[in-house]
Write a structure and sequence with these properties.
Oligomer: single chain
Radius of gyration: 24 Å
Number of domains: 2
Number of helices: 14
Number of strands: 26
Largest sheet: 9 strands, antiparallel
């Protein structure tokens, strides 16, 4: 059964011994983030700070702070309620790339799947836990224990929000996860990166001189949180994916002051709007690359309502020098959407985006090489494929190489390339947070072909065989290796 809400997930963490509850007062400025960083980097538990405080303001907050809730593979799998990421990969692959039946029998067989999709569509409810308390007359952010993550951050940041908007003309919904800097008790900096869905909605609205309504849901169930991070096709509803993961539809409730819907099981909801043409300096911020991103102008969110549970939990996340908690959100996406990528690149055997590569800086892929120049074809395909287009370095190895074993990969890179002939240098789009790019959102690209080279690729010798023990010898000595503890 799907988690009814974030509270149910927290209870599971508690029962499995994956949660530490801190009753000592802890400062929202840097102290919570430092303790969380230590927990993340040592494989430690999720943390629930029951008495967050701000010494400078002389106050203790009423809401506890939850952090590092997805900080290990075990917790990420538990959040998605699966034994392995591959289990969901197969189902999501069917959802995004359904086979079109051509016969009557095939059409009849497809009916249960279509029925299931219809049953998992988001549904509207009239009453919701996230609206137990409603404040529209004097809404304020002052009561929320928003943390300051790193010393040089421009302020305190909401880091785990579901930012919900609708396309100004089509009315289609987008849910994204964008950092939000608290400017004051009524405004936030809306960090809409130019390549993201929320930024597109804002551009369309701004061109028409229209205000964009925004709802910010904090702390729905884990499937909804994860779905907000998914690299889905434009205008595909993330709540449908969340329902698919949950095996239950997401229940939505209408907001009080904006024409939007939010998950009814959220902890806190912020309602408001962004005016066309209004910008304010946002940042710096210690982002997921582990460096401070530059201060730049971004749209301003104006608060019109705060709705919440009577006793909410405030969830947040820390990004910074790897590894950080977002590693496992990213790993889940790689494993779950690999079959979808393979629809476009059937020669792709496996993929690894190492945490040290911050997702978009380095991709290692193995391929079933079928013709000369195949590795370079795959490089170009990756640079033209959704959010993988941000990838700066692509390393291509043969299908028998374990892309998750960095020692093996580096061995192949060191031995299998002639840098003059096997490295491809080009250029393309970059993540807007890529500070090394010489131009905003544009950078060079490096492809490294570490596959075995063929004569047709200009290799003048016979490619040597690797030093390997024969299989029969390995099998014969298996009992002795086990006895020696070397199996």
């Amino acid at each position: 059964m799907a988690y009814r809400d974030l509270n149910a997930y927290v209870e599971l963490l508690r029962q499995r011994g994956w949660l530490k509850e801190v009753d000592t007062p802890v400062e929202v400025d840097l102290e919570i983030s430092h303790l969380a960083d230590r927990a993340i980097k040592t494989g430690g538990p999720a943390l629930l700070f029951r008495r967050p405080c701000c010494v400078a303001e002389g106050r203790e907050y009423d809401f506890p702070v939850l952090i590092n809730s997805f900080g290990t593979k075990e917790r990420m799998l538990a959040a998605l309620e699966v034994e392995s990421f591959d289990d969901l990969a197969r189902e999501i692959n069917e959802l995004l790339e359904p086979e079109i039946p051509t016969s009557l029998i095939g059409k009849l067989k497809s009916l249960p799947k279509l029925q299931r999709l219809g049953d998992l569509a988001p549904r509207l409810v009239s009453h919701a836990p996230c609206q137990e308390l409603v404040e529209t007359a004097n809404p304020t952010l002052a009561d929320i224990p928003i943390i300051k993550c790193w010393p040089q951050d421009g302020g305190r940041y909401i880091t785990l929000p579901l930012v919900i908007t609708k396309h100004p003309t089509r009315g289609t919904r987008n849910i994204g996860m964008y950092r939000l800097q608290k400017f004051d008790d009524q405004t936030l900096g809306m960090h809409w990166q130019r390549h993201k869905g929320g930024a597109h909605h804002h551009r369309v609205g701004e061109e028409a001189g229209r205000r964009i309504e925004v709802a910010i849901a904090l702390g729905p169930d884990p499937a909804c949180i994860y779905a907000a991070t998914c690299p889905l096709p434009d205008e595909m509803d993330e709540f449908m994916i969340a329902g698919f993961i949950r095996h239950q539809p997401v229940e939505l409730v209408k907001c009080k002051t904006v024409d939007l819907e939010v998950p009814s099981n959220s902890q806190i909801v912020l309602e408001g709007f962004v005016e066309p043409g209004e910008y304010r300096q946002e940042g710096p911020f210690g982002d997921h690359q582990g460096y401070y991103s530059r201060a730049e102008d971004f749209p301003v969110f104006h608060l019109t309502a705060v709705t919440r549970r009577r006793q909410p939990i405030y969830p947040t996340i820390l990004v910074g020098p790897p590894p950080c908690e977002d590693q496992w959100l990213g790993e889940a996406t790689i494993r779950m959407f690999l079959p979808v990528i393979q629809k476009t690149l059937p020669e792709l055997v496996d993929m690894n985006l190492p945490v040290e590569g911050i997702f978009h800086n380095l991709a290692i892929v193995s391929i079933d090489k079928r013709y000369p120049g195949h590795a370079k074809k795959v490089m170009h395909a990756i640079w033209g494929l959704g959010q993988l287009a941000f990838t700066k370095i692509v390393i291509v190895v043969d299908k028998d190489v374990n892309v998750h074993d960095l020692s093996e990969v580096l061995w192949k890179v060191g031995c299998n390339i002639d840098p003059k002939h096997d490295c491809l240098l080009t250029e393309g789009i970059a993540d807007v947070l890529d500070f090394a790019a010489r131009q905003p959102a544009q950078s060079g690209k490096l492809g490294i072909d570490a596959t075995r080279k063929w004569a047709e690729e200009g290799y003048p010798w016979v490619w040597p065989e690797e030093c390997r023990m024969p299989a029969e010898l390995i099998e014969r000595l298996a009992p002795l290796l086990s006895k020696l503890g070397l199996a």
